[in-house]
Amino acid sequence: MRSLFIIFILFVLTSCAQKPEEKTAEAIDVALSHLSSGECEEALKVLLEASDSTNPIYIQVLASAYACLANYDEVDFIANELSGLSTGTPADIMKSIASMSLSTEITADSDEYVAIRNGINTILGTTTTVTHDARVTKFGSRKAGDMSVQALMLNVVNLGKFLNFYGNVDATGVKGAGTNTNSCFINYTDARAQTVVASAVTGACTTNNDGHPDLSFAVADLPNTKRRLCEGLMLVTNILDILDNLDLSGSSELAKLEDISTQVSTFKTAAVAAGLGTLINMTSQSECETAMDTASNLDDMEYLYSLVFETGLQ
Fold it and tell me: What is the pLDDT of residue 313?
């Protein structure tokens, strides 16, 4: 009788257990309720307990929960940040992105920056297959499109933070005019990059040794510097990858992002012409960091920063 009773209890417990897809659906529903009330950490806790990397809606809600920690609201971003972006010239775009209200940063790897980065990584992943096409293959074109639009906006947010902090901008996005001391992103040792800096097309950056202290090439700082340099570049390359594969012209709210793509593609064209096609077409953070372990690739990264970040943000 005791054995039968134990079997009965096990049967009841098994029959009442949720299927994985039911657990995910419930987690999404509860998390959305938390997010609607601004309860970011509570939403994140529920979602992480479910853990379902195969469900695109789960992935999007998890990314939103991370972004919530950075006080990011998608509706507010579209209405108040995107509408204010200038699309006149590439330099205008970079300045306006650097001076968005969400862009203000006073420390490297701030909690807000890391939260947005976690949201981006949740959608894009961190493997070597970080492309819009890879998401289409895994999730289908419609869901991949939704995920890419969300990732696109998060990338723009963190690009603003990156430009703002490491470019040391003022309230209008002018490089080198902020509260830090640097006028360039990094100290340039590569001869090609030095030539770009000396050509008077890089705004306030007119010397090779006035880089941001948190992008130092000192041996002790190099691991973080390599990671940060790759993060900055991946923000640009993933924005380009998404915009090259999505048509947003039909959306009145998002069409301005198409204008950004048209202008920022100028930097990509220049990088490819300079022989930097491998880096400017790279979309994987892990792949980029591995590449930086080779001295010639690190030199190429210097050259790329002079062409894209120094020339782009003035």
Answer: 94
- For residue range 51-106, what is the model confidence (pLDDT) as tens digits? 888 899 999 999 999 999 999 999 899 888 887 888 778 888 899 999 999 999 99
CA dist., res. 29 & res. 7, Å (int): 33
**CA separation for the pair 238, 259 (Å, rounded):** 16
Calpha distance 180→184 (Å, rounded): 11
pLDDT in tens, 182-240: 999 999 999 999 999 999 899 999 999 999 999 999 999 999 999 999 999 999 999 99
- CA-to-CA separations, 266 to 10, 89, 204, 215, 269, in angstroms, rounded: 64, 10, 20, 25, 5
What end-to-end distance do the CA atoms of the chain give, in Å? Answer: 82
Return the residue matching tokens 């949720």.
Answer: 18
Q: Where are the alpha helices (DSSP H) in 17-130?
A: 20-36, 40-50, 56-68, 74-76, 90-98, 111-124
CA nearest to 264, candidates 82, 90, 97, 87: 90
Question: Number of C-alpha atoms within 13 angstroms, CB side, residue 202?
Answer: 28
| Stated pTM of the model | 0.91
Rounded to an integer, what distance in angstroms lies between the CA atom of residue 242 and that of residue 145?
Answer: 9
Q: Of 223, 235, 224, whose CA–CA distance to 282 is shortest?
A: 235
Given a cut of 60, is residue 12 above it in pLDDT?
Answer: no
Report yes or no: 217 and 189 within 8 Å, Cβ to Cβ.
yes
